[in-house]
Design brief:
The chain is an alpha/beta fold. Helices cover 24% and strands 28% of the residues. β7 and β8 form a beta hairpin.
């Protein structure tokens, strides 16, 4: 399976609490709910497309807990996200989550050797092993070079109060091959495939014989 990271982010890279002010207030984040003012009719089809290609979902504990509290309430059979999350296979990374706490449909807890277990899942079958949210897990997978593709919806908003960022100063430098599409309300859909993990391509501008060139 290929491993994909699927996330909503702000212009300044924040992926924390897009869906509501109380969704994730950890580290004192005051800016939750920044996605909600954007009309889902303009970008929801992209998310449906993500979930249409899901073989299994991989989540960190905090995101799993938030989703487990919310999505079982959505019983609309036409809601693709709810159908995948409520009935499809899920893996949650946690060293402390009990089996009773993980009781949500087809859920398996990865309690140790997480990177090794993820490598084994990738090698075991075809399709898409999708990570949604799960900021800390995403960073570990990125730094280990295990992410095959990032699918991002970038919203034209900058939030106050810091927030958990997809990439920060400590992230492993990486170059990407990118595809982009602009949606309604200025939302940008990005598909990024890593090409140079550890060091992106670089160059330099210079002037030769009065002409600007790259080297």
């Amino acid at each position: 399976m290929q491993l994909s990271v699927n996330a909503f982010v702000t212009l300044d890279g924040v992926m924390q609490a897009p869906g509501g002010p109380q969704e994730d207030v950890s580290r004192g984040f005051p800016g939750g709910g920044w996605l909600v003012p954007f009309d889902v009719a303009g970008w929801g089809h992209v998310v449906d497309g993500w979930f249409a290609g899901t073989t299994a979902v991989l989540l960190g504990r905090s995101t799993f807990t938030m989703m487990k509290d919310y999505w079982p309430q959505v019983t609309d059979p036409d809601n693709r996200v709810a159908t995948v999350l409520n009935h499809g296979p899920k893996y949650v990374v946690s060293g402390t989550l009990g089996d009773d706490e993980a009781a949500w449909g087809d859920t398996t807890v990865l309690r140790d050797d997480v990177l090794g277990r993820v490598r084994a899942l990738k090698a075991a079958g075809d399709g898409d092993l999708q990570v949604h949210g799960s900021w800390q897990l995403v960073r570990s997978l990125h730094d280990a070079g295990l992410v095959d593709v990032y699918r991002l919806l970038v919203f034209p908003v900058v939030v106050a109060g810091g927030g958990k960022r997809l990439f920060d100063d400590a992230a492993v430098p990486t170059g990407f091959q990118a595809r982009a599409a602009t949606l309604a309300d200025g939302v940008v859909s990005l598909e990024l495939r890593p090409t140079r993990h550890g060091a992106p391509d670089t160059g330099e501008y210079a002037v030769r014989d009065g002409r600007e060139v790259t080297t």
